[in-house]
Amino acid sequence: MGPAASHSCDPAAAMVQDDGEFDATRRSWNVATRNHNAHKGDQAARLAAGEEFLFEEELELLGDLSGRTLVHLQCNAGQDSLCLARRGAEVTGVDLSDEAIGFAQGLATASGIDASFVRAELVAWMHTTERRFEVAFCSYGAVGWLPDLHAWAAGVARILEPGGRLVYVEFHPMVWSIGETFRLDRDDYFTREPFGDPVSDYVAASEDALGALDEHPVPGINEVAAPSWQHTFAEVLDALAHAGLRIERVREYPWANGCRVSPGLVREPGSRRWVWPAGVARTPLMFGLVARRDP
């Protein structure tokens, strides 16, 4: 992950964030989506049998979803979207990757869980859609793929109904600075320039904590580099506040759900969490927040 571009305070600036600008990101995620899902077996059967892909931190912040209209921002291949729908929400998932949206639509049909999916560049979609939602949800590796946090936050505020709320659970941006031996020898926390790496096969690297049944990397390398940006925790909060959203809850967690964000982390026994090894001073590995549009 990496650095934030200049922040525009004008929501109309989001309109220039069209598909063409994000083509490399879309293509890289298309390859990654195929690779990630190749590890997970029959996910439709797993969903239909009631397997839960969401984590308790998300569920605690989301609360009761029965009858709620919910948009899942950057929904990826739809597994979490369908778990949200199974909890009673009327779910719309939005993602840039046509591979991910196609997979999500097929998964919904095969699992018998009702949800709708839209293939679109997220920020431009939020600034043009006429849809409004009671809940917006995003999680894990989301805004780092977007250059302009203020355009993103303004879009979130626009699509929320009065009184609606954003629930966001994310890896703490500090994790991209921490090396394998727990020294601060990776990415500078305040770096501004975009990174340009392909989306990795992190599902294989994270084993069954991310639902992998086959943990061997898929043959072939994702050679399509996708730009990403480093947004600090303060920048995320500031962008939401600047968009007029009221920050209601903020959490920090000393573990990482699912994804092994640093190779030095160890698996917590009996869970899908990656934690600090014994004897290492802990810093946050994730954060969670709830921000609400005033009625």
Keywords:
seven-stranded mixed β-sheet; three-stranded antiparallel β-sheet; Rossmann fold; 295 residues
CATH topology: Rossmann fold
The major sheet is characterized as: 7 strands, mixed
Radius of gyration: 18 Å
- Identify the overall geometry: globular
CATH architecture: 3-Layer(aba) Sandwich
Low-confidence stretches: 1-16
Q: Note the total helix count.
A: 9
Fraction of residues in β-strands: 15-25%
List the helices and strands and how they pair.
Layout (H helix, E strand, L loop, with lengths): L22 H15 L5 H6 L7 H7 L6 E5 L5 H8 L3 E6 L2 H14 L4 E4 L2 H5 L6 E7 L9 H11 E12 L23 E4 L3 H5 L18 E4 L4 H10 L2 E9 L1 E3 L8 E2 L5 E3 L10 E8 L2
Helix pairs in contact: 7-9
Description:
The structure is a single chain. The chain is an alpha/beta fold. It has one domain: Rossmann fold (3-Layer(aba) Sandwich). Helix content is 27%, strand content 23%. Strands 3-2-1-4-5-12-8 form a seven-stranded mixed beta sheet, sandwiched between helices. A three-stranded antiparallel beta sheet has the order 9-11-10, with no helix packed on it. Helix 7 packs across helix 9 (233-242). The protein starts with 22 loop residues before the first helix and ends with a strand.
